[in-house]
């Protein structure tokens, strides 16, 4: 239906059409960790009580709130399905409170904090009561959305993907701290051209975790150093490392012991962060395989992290908007402005800063990486090496266009078809049965390589989308081969 109120809540609008405003109960909540502040009013805006009341953030508080709501409904003759409970986008500490209200049969709405602020009575002062007024006004102006009950798998993906990114940032920071410490203890140790040791390799980490210093390397017998390095490096590396230690300027012995201990502690934290990142990555991979987004592994240059980011931020395919809205949400659609009559062309203003930055980063990285990554089937059949996304990127780049943004948009368009159809990334041109077989086998080999080290057998077969896709394609290839052989006969 065409309307100027495209952003209005259809849930609230439908209820306001069904019954009179006095037969609708509105319950705005302002959350806190210990006690929530609540008021009750009808859809005309008249409060049923002079003051707000508190409810504790536990089961007793939930029962008390339901009791107050049921009491108000009884006095006003309001049905339970016409009760609207509204709050600003809830924090983690109150999500269970809101979902429990949903399970009890109430309509729970969330209001964007910026929208609620616009509808406050006072734009200067702020208090719990004023915030409640803003939430109630936003709902009555249809600026609220139902609190979606996300499927557990997608809420886990969102949580894990965001924690993984934070852990990786902490991991990178820890590397920088170690670099500063080792530059004082043993200058040039992490420079492979000088020391011959690969930075942050298993040997370098092992050596730094046991009182590493330039004096220790200088005084160590060459035979002992060779034995330590034998597992990781050839004998010549030991000679090069000692030669570098002898040629470097040594720090004062007064600070070496202190710095070595600090380095040991930094390495312990480094190992802990590395283990946490590996564990979170494994959890991401296991969760991703149980969603249709596992098909994104078939895109060249897209691995677990980028596919998981798309799954976590876009959510279940049933909740998707249009292609243009998804691109706008991801921040890859430029803003435009048109004024001065129908003959004036639109002006492109650039990308909006109001977007999902996690999605934007993942999609742009995927776009540039997929342009550099040939399809794995190209190693067997050269004609399959250059795929459609790669050609598109090169074509747009050749005309000095926005190749990254254009390819990112195409990735979303491909993703919509792949995820909804639960199928792999297919070539643009028609292939023979033999070429298709090579293409499909290479694609699934690449997808399994992305998940190397993950125990896929621990996932129930009915939940493993990757295995289901592989079985379906296997049957399809077999049927095509059978038809092809029948034709040749």
From TrEMBL:
Domain (Transposase IS110-like N-terminal): give its ranges: 29-187
Q: Tell me, what's a Pfam family for it?
A: Transposase_20
Task: Domain (Transposase IS116/IS110/IS902 C-terminal): give its ranges.
Answer: 296-372
Q: What is this protein called?
A: Transposase
Organism for this UniProt entry: Lentisphaera profundi
